[in-house]
Each structure stands twice: as structure tokens, then as C-alpha cells.
Write a structure and sequence with these properties.
two-stranded antiparallel sheet
Length: about 160
């Protein structure tokens, strides 16, 4: 598990659709849902910097399985049970909003897909090692609470620096 630099980042697939979400463009940024756009607006209004879907984190490195693998697989449109590639792809995760300076991540989640709970657990373990604070709001009210928490933490850090 490792953090990637901005130069290593690959943009997420824009064709992936979020369940029951309406894509929206705000400030020239294409958001996948209205709640993500709302989060961006709230952060901007408060002068809080963040990167939207710019950081991709490697949760599990790619691998090569040394044995033989037999799985159901389509060959020319026909399902067959056959030997498949031994290459195992990496598991990556791209959170919605990241601030690397203040070390926080906001993942806006209306409806979770079937993969999200497992990736979120893996990401929490990685983020804990790196000292990040994670927020998972799923409503506008929770987004407002998240922004207030970030503002309070920022004030606390500034006061701590003054005391030292």
C-alpha cells in the first residue's frame, strides 16, 4: 500500500456512472453528483483548498499468481470455463476531495456500490498510517458539518502553532 504523487495520477474513468446521481459542472469542474458539487461549493465558500479526484491511492499492488487459474470467461461471446491470465490487477481508490497539507479526505457517498465498503476499509487502514482524517458525508447537512469540523481543526492547529 502506498501513496502516489500527483505526477503518477491517472484520471478516473469519466464513463463510470454513480447510481441515482446527476452529473454537474461547477467552476469548470465536472462533478459526478450534485452532492459532490455542493461539497465543492461549501469548501470554496469557506476558502478551504482541496483537490477533486486528483489523488489515486494504491490499496493492493498488482501481482502475478504463480499457480494456474480456471474461471468462467467469455471467448468470442461464449461463456467457457478455462484457464485465465495469472496477472492480478492492482486495487486502487480515488477519493472525492483531498487536502494533503491539512491531511484530510472527504468521500461524498450517496449510494455505495458493491465494491465501496471493502475499498473504504482498505483505505482507512492506509490513511490511518499516514495520519489523515477521513469524512464520509452522505447528505448536505453532513457536508456542512464536515466543513465546520475542518474549520475547527484548522483553527486548533493555528492556535497550537501560536502557543509553541
Amino acid at each position: 500500500m502506498s501513496w502516489k504523487k500527483k505526477s503518477d495520477i491517472i484520471a478516473p474513468n469519466p464513463k463510470q456512472k454513480i447510481k441515482n446521481a446527476t452529473a454537474l459542472t461547477v467552476d469548470g469542474i465536472k462533478f459526478r453528483s450534485k452532492l459532490e458539487a455542493y461539497t465543492h461549493r461549501r469548501l470554496s465558500e469557506e476558502g478551504i483548498d482541496s483537490d477533486y479526484e486528483l489523488h489515486r491511492y494504491n490499496l493492493l499492488d498488482k501481482n502475478v499468481f504463480e499457480g494456474t487459474i480456471y474461471e468462467p470467461h467469455k471467448v468470442k461471446g461464449i461463456k467457457a470455463f478455462r484457464e485465465v491470465s495469472n496477472n492480478i490487477r492492482a486495487i486502487t481508490y480515488t477519493p472525492d476531495f483531498v487536502n494533503t497539507e491539512d491531511k484530510w479526505v472527504i468521500e461524498v457517498k450517496g449510494y455505495a456500490n458493491d465494491v465501496f465498503p471493502l475499498k473504504w476499509k482498505m483505505f482507512k487502514a492506509l490513511a490511518e498510517i499516514q495520519g489523515y482524517t477521513l469524512y464520509l458525508p452522505s447528505t448536505q447537512k453532513q457536508v456542512r458539518e464536515t466543513v465546520e469540523l475542518i474549520k475547527m481543526e484548522k483553527k486548533y492547529e493555528k492556535n497550537k502553532e501560536i502557543l509553541v
